[in-house]
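Hi everyone,

Forwarding the result from last night's run.
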Amino acid sequence: MPEALSDEARRWQASAESFANDVLAPLTADAPADRARAIDASQQIGLFKLTQPVSHGGSEASQLTLCTVRDTLSGHNAPHADAVLGPGPGVLASVVEPLRSRFLEPLLKGQLRGGFGFTEPDDAPHFTQAVLEGDSYRVTGQKSYVTGGGSADFVNVLVHIDKQPALILIETTADGVERSAVFQSIDGSRHAAFTFNDVKVPASHVIAAPGAGMPKALGQIGDTRLAIAATCVGLCRWVYAEMTSHLAGKTRDGTARGDDPVARLRLGECYLRAFAARSMLYRTARLADVGENVVNQAMACKVFAVDALTFIVDEAIQLVGGSAVIEDHPLAQLFRRVRSLRLAEGATDRLLQNIARGRLELNKGHI
């Protein structure tokens, strides 16, 4: 539970708390210069490198510490909280030269941005293919929703090599790469669709060999699901505090808003969901840190925490009333943001099916 943290997690929790109050709170959400200030300040005190390997100057924090820091930062709903922790190595964690110095190191320093191409559009004629020709691969295909693709310098693409899933790194400036669409989702993030027209890619850019591509891709997605859950848990706490503060106020006739029995029911239901989501998150982080396979638990955390936040934000808007649906109100902004999370890293319905499959077919995900 959050009350029984390791010494490491407690130290970083205190650091994140101070950072949110002293650095993030005064910043402006839509100011790129303020985002850069947040990143610089985070790098100076070491928060930025918590997600990064010791071999690259990071501290490679435990899942418990990472979840604690994300929960703490999001509990303030402060501007640019998502920029405080730097990018992890992801699927590039075990790459060797030339990928290590050309892509991994600049990525970890914030000098390059990567994207992740996993899904083909529904009307794609075939899965994205990579065919070996001499010392390079020729890649053809499409990806419909490349996470971070709007500003990516390279994309880690799931392809088929000899009819088996593999991962290959493709620079977005390579001949034949077409960023066919750039779009902004309702949460404000920018992604892209890509078409690969006979793109020549060095054989050294293969990140995961045929047959190993899907497990490596799913491993990255699993870590991201836990990160999403931690962010949602912190935001649940922030919204719950806002609801409590609102209900402590007075109505026009001078009675306390919190005296309304319907309002109390709403607040009680929100507490149950926030408490359960936070408990799930910290238990799963501990299981991950002792080496347990938490694929099912991470999916469960992501689904439950996102759904809990969706419910709590909606209830908060209902309590606050008309002012909360105005476009620049924090609750209205959060409502748009959380809706997109039900699709991120696996749609809710698909993840529920996968949880059942993990139990029925793989005997994973004990309670």
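The chain has nine helices and eight strands.

Cheers,
N.
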